[in-house]
Amino acid sequence: METEKLEKFYVIGISVRTTNENGKAGTDIPELWNKFMSENLIEKIPNKIDNTIYCIYTEYEKDYTKPYTTILGCKVSSIENIPNEMVAKTFENENYRKFVAKGNILQGMVFGEWTKIWNTEIDRKYSADFEV
Question: Can you give the residue ranges of the Integron-associated effector binding protein domain (predicted)?
């Protein structure tokens, strides 16, 4: 784990309000991914910088055990034109801890990395986390 300074950036995409309680996120987030991919929403994001997909966790009610919003989208140069049914998220200049998940995505490597993060003693702000 390393700390990385990120410059201000924007993401536009689709979102769902979910929670890790009772495994709800385990259903909601795959459904969000399915919608994003099956409706080819990546092509409907305006001012897209590239096709890198960001999965953002934000608007935490408290911490990772309480409701939060998940956004799937792409980095954009501007959030002046947000399509209907999409949302925008601004990330200000900030230091982030970088974790790298290694292994087979079909065998839960991403969830495994989150489990490690949740079990660390990091003093988290719970403002926004993301996967690339």
Answer: 4-132
> Going along 19-47, which residue ranges are E strands?
none
Nearest one of 122, 28, 110, 26 to 71, comparing CA atoms: 28
By CB atoms closer than 10 A (0-12, 13-18, 19+), residue 85 is: exposed
Q: Which CATH number fits domain 7-93+124-131: 3.40.50.970, 3.40.50.2000, 3.40.718.10, 3.20.80.10?
A: 3.20.80.10
What is the spatial order of strands in the sheet that 87-91 belongs to? 87-91, 9-18, 68-76, 48-58, 128-131
Question: Tell me: the pLDDT tens digits for 54-68?
Answer: 999 999 999 888 999
pTM for the model: 0.88
**CA gap 7, 79 in Å, rounded:** 16
